[in-house]
Design a protein that fits this description.
The protein is an alpha+beta fold. The chain has helices at about 5-20, 120-125, 185, 190-200, 285-300; strands at about 30-35, 45-50, 50-60, 65-70, 90-95, 100-110, 110-115, 135-140, 145-150, 160-170, 205-215, 220-235, 240, 250-255, 265-275, 275-280. The longest helix is centred in the first third of the chain and has 16 residues, at about 5-20.
Length: about 300
């Protein structure tokens, strides 16, 4: 017996099949799809609702319009907190080293601004052996309509074309090191209130010593090697134990312009994780932190409790 299915149902099923084929995402943070299922010139709408994740577009054809609407935690913001600017959100994207076959634009108020070029074209134009995957950042006000428009580029052969990148979005209370225009603010010393807030809200808080400082002029970064004597908190495993003496070691980055030098003594290192790397926030000397914390504790003004010794 031949089973007849109404045309509208066929259309619905085909749409489901197309969505299943082009979108392998199983959560609201990451998306993976293939341009082989897209019509040339079509634009596929994607909505992600996490503060960080991955996007991978195989064999790009047509375009993607990516709306990022993270559900950011409210996060405490002190009146004098560094980076506070009335609900502004910082967004950064880091293309994969083999980013090929598309270009990424920032869509804001109906206008497109180029953020990431097709690295294949960039290689041809600049005659380089490799193009470094750089981080591109922008900011928006909470509630402002901003999206990423990923446009495929024309190639005779789309094989081995993969447009992949990572993204991060954070409220300003935790994004003090993400935008180039924040360098001056990131380099200046923290005041007492900022120190307390950094200890309470940072991705990592450790006590330790500076073993070495290496300056990378090409990336405009300074890499600080840290030997820890106590780990108060780390969101990810940034500091790894080595040897049998209970110490952990790791690296913290900051801007080259800050002029970080190897200092003697014990410090409290705080900061945030940016694409898997630890970036330095406030770093007071341990004796100064203890004084700041004890004064705030006696006045019942410390924003959180932290073990002191």
């Amino acid at each position: 017996m031949l089973l007849l299915i109404p045309f509208t149902l066929w259309t619905f099923l085909l749409c489901l099949l197309k969505a299943a084929y082009s979108d392998y995402s199983v959560d609201q943070c990451n998306w993976k799809g293939s341009g082989l299922s897209q019509e040339p010139g079509s634009v596929e709408q994607i909505f992600l609702h996490c503060a960080e994740g991955d996007v991978e577009w195989l064999y790009p054809v047509g375009a993607l319009r990516l709306s990022l609407s993270p559900r950011l935690p409210p996060g405490p913001v002190a009146p004098a907190s560094r980076g506070s600017s009335g609900g502004r959100i910082t967004a950064c994207i880091k293309p994969a080293e083999n980013f090929r076959g598309a270009q990424i634009y920032l869509e804001r108020n109906g206008e497109l601004q180029l953020l990431v070029r097709d690295q294949h074209q960039q290689l041809e134009e600049e005659d380089q052996d490799a193009v470094e995957a750089k981080v591109h950042c922008f900011s928006r006000l909470a509630g402002e309509k901003v999206a990423l428009f990923i446009q495929s580029t024309l190639h005779r052969d789309i094989s081995r074309r993969i447009a992949a990148f990572k993204y991060e979005l954070r409220g300003d209370w935790s994004s003090g090191l993400l935008l180039p225009q924040q360098i001056e603010r990131a380099c200046r010393p923290c005041n007492d209130t900022e120190v307390l807030m950094a200890v309470c809200t940072s991705d990592f808080v450790v006590r330790g010593h500076i073993r070495n400082v290496v300056h990378d002029a090409e990336r405009q970064e300074s890499v600080v090697s840290v030997s820890t004597t106590k780990i108060y908190r780390q969101k990810f495993t940034l500091f790894h134990p080595i040897g049998k003496y209970g110490k952990s070691f790791g690296e913290v980055r900051t801007f080259l312009k800050c002029g970080v030098k190897q200092g003697v003594g014990s410090f409290i290192f705080t900061g945030h994780v940016h694409f898997g790397e630890a970036w330095l926030g406030c770093a007071p000397r341990n004796k100064d932190f203890k004084r700041i914390y004890e004064v705030a504790k006696e006045a019942h003004e410390n924003p959180c409790e932290i073990e002191s010794d």
